[in-house]
C-alpha cells in the first residue's frame, strides 16, 4: 500500500510504499488481546504481601487449655480464624509474567500496525528533526496537524531535540523503532512513523 509522507510543518514530502505483510493484514482482536495481556502481566510489579501466622505479632502462648472449655482446640492467637491473625494462603511477592513465543509477538505487532493503517490513523512523516528543543513550537505543530493522542515512532534513535520538546506535551509519546510495542500503539489514537522508522520496522518484522 502507498501512503503520502508529510513534514512536521504539514507540507508534502512525497510518498512511501508500505509492505502489505506488515501494514495490510486484517487485524485480529484475539491476537492483539493475547499480546497486550502478555505485556501488562510482565509489567505488573507483584509486590503484594500478606502476613502468615508465623509473621503476626501475637504471643505464641496457648490461649487456653486443650480440653474442658467446650470451645475449639486453639493453639495461639495467630491462627487465621482470629481477628488480626495470620492470613491463610494470602498473596506473596511473585512475578506475573508468562511466556509468549517470539513469532507470536511479532505477529501481534504486525496486526497492531495494520489496525492503525486500516482505520486511517497511520501517519508517515519525513523526519523529526528540530533545530531547537522548544516545547511550545512543537506543541503548535502537533495541534495544527490534529494529533491529540499520538505515538511517534522514529528510527533506531530518536532525535534528541524532538524528544526533549515532546517530553512535556500531554498525549504525545515518542519511541525508537526498537521500542515499538502493541500496547503503546493501541492506546494512542494516532500512530506517527518516520520514514526511518518504517524502514526499521520492516527490517525487524520481515
TrEMBL record:
GO terms for cellular component: ribonucleoprotein complex; ribosome. GO terms for molecular function: rRNA binding; structural constituent of ribosome. Keywords: Ribonucleoprotein, Ribosomal protein, RNA-binding, rRNA-binding. It comes from the Bacteria. The keyword Ribonucleoprotein applies. Residues 64-95 are annotated as: Disordered. GO terms for biological process: translation. The keyword Transmembrane helix does not apply. Belongs to the universal ribosomal protein uL4 family. Forms part of the polypeptide exit tunnel. One of the primary rRNA binding proteins, this protein initially binds near the 5'-end of the 23S rRNA. It is important during the early stages of 50S assembly. It makes multiple contacts with different domains of the 23S rRNA in the assembled 50S subunit and ribosome. This is Large ribosomal subunit protein uL4.
Amino acid at each position: 500500500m502507498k501512503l503520502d509522507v508529510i513534514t512536521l510543518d504539514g507540507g508534502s514530502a512525497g510518498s512511501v510504499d508500505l509492505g502489505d505483510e506488515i501494514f495490510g493484514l486484517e487485524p485480529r482482536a484475539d491476537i492483539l488481546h493475547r499480546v497486550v495481556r502478555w505485556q501488562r502481566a510482565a509489567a505488573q510489579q507483584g509486590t503484594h504481601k500478606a502476613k502468615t501466622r508465623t509473621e503476626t505479632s501475637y504471643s505464641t502462648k496457648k490461649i487456653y487449655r486443650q480440653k474442658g472449655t467446650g470451645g475449639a482446640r486453639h493453639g495461639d492467637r495467630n491462627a487465621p480464624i482470629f481477628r488480626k491473625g495470620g492470613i491463610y494462603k494470602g498473596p506473596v511477592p511473585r512475578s506475573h509474567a508468562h511466556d509468549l513465543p517470539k513469532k507470536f509477538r511479532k505477529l501481534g505487532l504486525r496486526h497492531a500496525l495494520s489496525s492503525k493503517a486500516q482505520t486511517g490513523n497511520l501517519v508517515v512523516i519525513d523526519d523529526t528533526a528540530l533545530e531547537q528543543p522548544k516545547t511550545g513550537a512543537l506543541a503548535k505543530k502537533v495541534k495544527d496537524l490534529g494529533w491529540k493522542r499520538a505515538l511517534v515512532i522514529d528510527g533506531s534513535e530518536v532525535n534528541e531535540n524532538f524528544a526533549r520538546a515532546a517530553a512535556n506535551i500531554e498525549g504525545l509519546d515518542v519511541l525508537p523503532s526498537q521500542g515499538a510495542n502493541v500496547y503503546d500503539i493501541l492506546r494512542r489514537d494516532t500512530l506517527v512513523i518516520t520514514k526511518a522508522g518504517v524502514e526499521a520496522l520492516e527490517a525487524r518484522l520481515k
